[in-house]
Amino acid sequence: MSKRHWAMVGAGGLAFLSMMAAFGTSPSTVTDHVSRQDITQDLPQPFANAAIKPLPATLFTREEKVRPGDTASTLLKRIEVDGEETLSQLRRTPNADIFFQQLAPGKTLTAQVDGEGQLQSLIFPLNGQQDQVLLIERGAEGFRAKTRPLATEVQVQMKSAEIRYSLFGATDAAGIPDGIASQLADIFGGDIDFHRDLRKGDRFSVIYEVMSAQGRMVRTGKILSAEFVNDGKTYRAVWFATSDGKGGYYAPDGKSLRKAFLRSPLEFSRVTSGFSSARFHPILQTWRAHKGVDYGAPIGTKVRATGDGVVEFAGTQGGYGKVVILRHQGRYSTVYGHLSAFVAGIRPGARVSQGDTIAYSGMSGLASGPHLHYEFRIDGVHQNPLTVALPGSPPLGPQQLGRFKQLATDQIDRLHMASTGNISALD
Ligand SMILES: [Zn+2]
What we know:
five-stranded antiparallel β-sheet, alpha+beta
């Protein structure tokens, strides 16, 4: 294990201790229904670079979020450094003005402070540049400031959770980032409509990458594998990099999880998952009556093309209000009604890919509340999009299947361990 990696684990340990302290004051915040495990693994390739040195033991790491109204002075006070002296030094430091100019609320700065309250270093994210930071370091002759790439390290995490009320309730309780929750919904989106199909007692395990620096998550990576038990039925997905340089999610038998159509045209997000159906009174409620599916959604929610296709119509049409009609390969077409706006470039003849945002939901036309009206037609005949059998993508060929099955067996073992909490067996 590299020295850098050791430093990471150390920083993580600190965070863990402070979390324990937080839980100690209010034990009720500990969720009893969720089993969760974190695993940090060394990856075969070193993704990190050595831009940020490991911490000597005598330094303390402080993280502080910029609050509205903060100044450099109030921030430094909170991380308990000798404010005035440090401030005047920083003001004289070339390039350090970025720190004073970009104190946007919500940003997190990471500082190393020695036992005497002297600021030794400070890492500060730059505006609009996800992977660039301002690094301020104390040298023999005062501070030096420079922008540099963030030294990120890829960690692999395993989490498991059970759904009591909502997917996001479960992911929150298990400490799973929102980005991973949305990816889960996308990966299984051909089989499960996350807006409608989730049941209390559904559970899932997921193994995913996290990019972190100095023990702090910078952003989420991709899901490596996942298992989702929906209404008693188990679905599994394993990421596989195919030999054409791309990759995708496959079931353990090598079948592609990518369907020609997504089950739901609405992006699944914290907002749409929590949208109250009490505010939504569809005029025509049942499938039989109006041959579509209605999704309650706040006005402006992203509407996605459920499959690759060509725009046949984008405009206003009777009770549909603003509507997009897509024609797909073969006999399929899809309809998206009551929209509030179209995405630029969505006009007859335009090509769209599955998952592209084509419009925003609304309540135009014959709609008594904000919702998306969605239809799925085969040869012009309405089909119930919630139950129609959807065409799939080709499975892995025999040349790739062997390599995939090895990987899949390993990932499924790990998912099983995550779901049973039997993590020690991994070491
Ligand atoms: Zn409808």
